[in-house]
């Protein structure tokens, strides 16, 4: 089964689950009381939350194959496809900048990089590579990126600090962020480095390329559905093992987006997509996934709106027990912390925030309204 315009239902469902998870982990009731499974790893390591963003970039890569495979067969279309990819990448980047600027619009301290910015950059680079190359070349590029990044991070001395290292403030990626972005335009929680920074975007591109290679397997009509599923599981399992093995000496780390992290997360994403594909598209058990599809077909829209609404609630001031608080705090303390333990209240708020978007997304899904970004 597939949605109109050759959309793969399992891919939309997998994307929807991922973007719902992105909203969930980005909107706890309180950042001081996050439900433990929704926390990021402190530095090295990988929690379920750390899987969410690479899963989305992996899906970006898979979707590129389904969107461009047929169109790229005619070389005469390449320039037009590249222009469209550049426009979409720029729109995503600018939407990310708009979120970073809102609501104060302070250009002197705006964070230049971010989630949507990274998605835009990864999308354009991966789309350009896909348009101009074949899978073998894409695999070579992906592998080369992972090896070069490993060499840079573990063998190149860090200017001003000396020996190469993977510590928060003194690694090469952090140095590059301070040099290029400056401390005024990095992540506000660190000021000295950015988890979506300049150098770490390079292996993030490799995550998108990993998704493209998996998308090529799914798109291969010469193989049966069972064979495609088996290949996805097999490649995913091998990548997962390689990621854990590489992680023994190049630790799995989301903020640095290490090469081991790319393989570890890409392997898990491949196996997850294989499961969705087998259950939904091959076996036809699709009724349960419609809620996820509703999120998936308008993923960027719902992610953008969730961030705007969260920031807007922080601007609106109300009085509670004689104290001025923002709308978020008023709602959270009135309806959640008043009867739930702190960590469960934080989880309940996040789940409610995610589910409320169904009031918007479900009618859009039923009417097949898709906002293309």
From TrEMBL:
Keywords: Acyltransferase, Membrane, Transferase, Transmembrane, Transmembrane helix. The chain crosses the membrane at residues 12-31, 51-68, 89-105, 111-131, 138-158, 197-218, 230-249, 261-280, 292-316, 336-362. It holds the Pfam family DUF5009. One of its GO terms (molecular function) is acyltransferase activity. The keyword Acyltransferase applies. Residues 10-96 form the DUF5009 domain. It comes from the Bacteria. This is Putative acyltransferase.
